[in-house]
Design brief:
heterodimer; A: mainly alpha; globular; B: mainly alpha; two-stranded antiparallel ribbon; 13 helices
């Protein structure tokens, strides 16, 4: 059955191929457009290959985006690590040290994952101004750590639920206390959990836009805001914009290409059902 | 034992306090701003009653936003489910090259809505892009610059119907998010024991019949999850539309998220912006709260 030829199979591949082309179309256009000199980026030659390879749009886009690109790293790396750590702590308690009302508390935390961030934005900005973190990467780190708590807690709670309780019980019989169990049993077993959560958080924080555009200005903006500004300028240089889009997307694309398996696992873990 | 209990509480405490303040406290504060007179650069927290809400529901732009959100949500979720399920069924049975196809359909998930918006803005540009190709067939849609409303009729101040321009945004959003539904359905299909299908096969059921009567009904909880998660994304969507089209001519592609951003942070109408935000929160809560409630009951 697996190898026999059938029209049904052929039909399947046909549908898949058409949809695959649709999904890859933007990538083709990004690459082709970004490699063209501006005078070749005309209305009717969009699909054509460039007559010669021109990397000038990349150097132009990179010159404009480089500082913001770095900002995104300064933002995403610490924010990812801190929110993963908080998530691991919460997930440990909420899966292995359940108490009366802990499920309610978990739901109470989880709700924060679904709120439209518009509904907390005005007080958030006032608050950041008051503590002197408005328009700073540190302020954005704080924001992403806080609003990352629900999702990282959910992911670690599901992950730790799969570690058998007996392991913890036997360690406790051996005299290990709450912290020792966490440090010597849970954390060493958490490598996969940390990878999944870190990829998920890194991608989300890197790609986030609403907080970035409202909390930071100019030099402190992450790369997504700078990319958006690039397209907001007077004359739209499509080749530079496409190069910019590719540069801005590269880190998460690389993460996806190398660690796609964990990326998808995070995607599923983040969907409540787990 | 009690010492360990205290440690457990200590572990949760920072997160708990942060959530209390940053989620619930801030929502409360936004609610307070939404019933205030703070509609200029100078903070004015005097009580305004429901004035800002009444203003919004009579406002042409906000009415258009609600219409756009409604049709965006329906089209977006409908297409995501159809495409995601179709792809999952096609990829389900260890097809050769499955992982290549899977990766192709998943990868847009790794991109940001801003990148998607910028790219599709170029692809669906009425004078370039896909239209170059469509022109050879003699059609040239105006995509997101089209101000027509399909099947429209006057309702209040707005024309009620499907804004053509929204379809362009839906295409971009579906491109981005189909991978999510696909991943969910694929996981769901793999979770259905093969014996169930085998039993139906022995009873002489065709493959199509098995999918229709056995497999797809089993996927129902996944469909519910996909709907809930996509609904909460679509009800608060901002970056894709902001990067791709903005409010559009006659607000054909405007949504509450964009309106809230512009009115609050560009226009300094804080109370109006807060009212939009609270309405957005309530629409999301209608979906989310029952879902969380059920998930909680199911797990305990």
């Amino acid at each position: 059955m697996a190898t026999t030829f059938s029209y049904g199979r052929l039909f399947k591949y046909f549908i898949l191929a058409i949809l695959a082309i649709f999904f890859l179309l933007p990538i083709y256009v990004i690459i082709v457009t970004s490699l063209k000199p501006l005078d070749e980026v005309s209305l009717d030659s969009m699909w054509a290959l460039p007559s010669s390879l021109d990397f000038s749009s990349y150097s132009l886009a990179f010159a404009k985006l480089a500082p913001n690109f770095l900002n995104s790293f300064y933002l995403a790396i610490p924010a990812t690590l801190l929110s993963a750590l908080l998530g691991a702590m919460n997930g440990y308690v909420l899966s292995k040290w359940k108490f009366k009302g802990s499920e309610t508390l978990f739901t109470f935390i989880l709700f924060g994952m679904f709120i439209p961030y518009q509904s907390i934005l005005i007080p958030l900005i006032q608050f950041l101004r008051d503590i002197g973190l408005y328009n700073s990467i540190a302020g954005l780190i704080l924001v992403h750590v806080v609003y990352g708590i629900p999702i990282t807690t959910l992911m670690f709670r599901n992950f730790y639920a799969s570690i058998p309780d007996e392991m913890i019980e036997s360690a406790q019989i051996d005299g290990a206390n709450f912290l020792k169990v966490f440090r010597h049993i849970m954390l060493p077993l958490s490598v996969t959990g940390f990878v999944v959560v870190a990829i998920w958080q890194f991608t989300n924080i890197w790609n986030e836009f609403l907080f970035a555009v409202t909390i930071t200005t100019n030099n402190n903006q992450p790369v997504m805001v700078a990319l958006q500004n690039l397209s907001g300028s007077q004359i739209v240089q499509w080749n530079v914009q496409m190069a910019g889009a590719l540069i801005a997307a590269l880190p998460t694309l690389i993460v996806y290409i190398i660690l796609g398996k964990y990326f998808v696992r995070g995607l599923l873990a983040g969907s409540v059902k787990g | 034992m009690t010492k360990d209990r205290w440690m457990a509480v200590g572990f949760l405490m920072p997160s708990f306090l942060l959530i209390v303040i940053f989620v619930y406290g801030f929502i409360g504060w936004t609610g307070y701003v939404s019933v205030s007179n703070w509609n200029s650069i100078v903070q004015d927290l005097s009580f305004a009653g429901l004035k800002n809400y009444i203003y919004l529901f009579q406002d042409y732009r906000f009415q258009a936003d609600l219409r756009n959100t409604l049709f965006f949500t329906i089209l977006f979720i409908g297409l995501i489910i159809i495409l995601g399920l179709t792809l999952a069924v096609l990829l389900d049975k260890q097809l050769k090259g499955e992982s290549i196809f899977r990766n192709i359909f998943f990868f847009p998930m790794a991109l940001s809505f801003v990148v998607t918006g910028v790219v599709w803005q170029w692809l669906l540009n009425p004078s370039t892009g896909i239209n170059n190709f469509l022109q050879t067939f003699g059609i040239q849609p105006k995509w997101y610059t089209d101000t027509n409303i399909l099947a429209g009729f006057q309702w209040g101040k707005i024309e009620f119907g499907v804004p053509v321009a929204i379809i362009a945004v839906v295409i971009a959003a579906v491109w981005q998010m189909t991978g999510f539904a696909l991943a969910m359905y694929l996981a769901g299909l793999r979770g259905i024991p093969e014996e169930i299908r085998e039993a139906a096969r022995i009873d002489g059921a065709s493959e199509l019949y098995i999918y229709r009567k056995v497999v797809i009904p089993q996927l129902r909880p996944i469909t519910v999850s996909v709907i809930i998660i996509m609904a909460h994304i679509s009800l608060k969507i901002f970056d894709l539309i902001y990067a791709m089209t903005g409010p559009g001519a006659n607000f054909v592609t405007d949504v509450p998220g964009v309106y809230m951003f512009e009115t609050t942070f560009r226009g300094n109408y804080y109370a109006n912006g807060a009212a939009i935000a609270i309405i957005m929160l309530l629409t999301v809560a209608i979906f989310i709260v029952p879902y969380l409630w059920n998930a909680r009951r199911g797990s305990s």
